[in-house]
Write a structure and sequence with these properties.
The protein is α/β, with parallel strands linked by helices. The protein contains 7 helices and 8 strands; from the N terminus they run H-E-H-E-H-E-E-H-E-E-H-H-E-H-E.
């Protein structure tokens, strides 16, 4: 569980991590990369195996690519326990999809969502670049369809919001279906 981070991306002490684990809380902050996704997924699956109560997945100023986030979304969808998601600070990129995938989704009062796909870099031969861009486009379409399903909004509206790179205040995110409520 070395991927748990506190505010400003600083590693949590082992004692704090254990206390959060005992309360079925998983923390994610900063850039969500493949290593952190693996640790978070393993922690979620472990908590699922240890009991039937919900798990709380808390994001603090987190962002990440769509492909890494799709892994966590898949894990959330196959778990046998509900996953409540909570967002604090600015959440961006694929992390917005993980927030939306929760069974109960909350944002802190000053949280904001940045509806922007992360930049991608592709190098290689023309055929390799075409293939990579086609794969990225398919991944983006999958992500937008998932957001459409979770928000109740048409895919075309989701695509338009993400193409512009909107920032949403917590209340607006609730209105648009990315979250269920704002924390008191």
């Amino acid at each position: 569980m070395s991927a748990d981070f506190g505010p400003q991306g600083l590693p949590l002490t082992e004692g704090v991590r254990e206390a959060l684990f005992a309360r079925r809380i998983v923390m994610v902050a900063g850039q969500l990369d493949q290593a952190q996704v693996s640790d978070v997924a393993a922690t979620l699956m472990t908590l699922d195996a240890l009991g039937d109560d919900h798990v709380e997945l808390r994001f603090t100023s987190a962002t990440g690519p769509v492909d890494a986030s799709l892994v966590l979304i898949d894990v959330i969808e196959v778990l046998g326990v509900p996953v409540h998601t909570v967002g604090m600070g600015v959440l961006g990129g694929g992390v917005v999809g993980v927030l939306a995938a929760g069974t109960h989704r909350q944002l802190s009062r000053r949280a904001r969502l940045h509806l922007r796909e992360p930049d991608i870099e592709v190098t290689g031969r023309a055929v390799d670049i075409e293939r990579a861009l086609a794969e990225e486009s398919a991944r983006r379409d999958t992500f937008h369809h998932l957001l459409s399903r979770r928000t109740g909004r048409p895919v075309s509206e989701v695509e338009a919001q993400w193409a512009v790179g909107h920032f949403l205040a917590a209340e607006d995110a609730v209105t648009l279906g990315y979250a269920d409520s704002v924390l008191p």
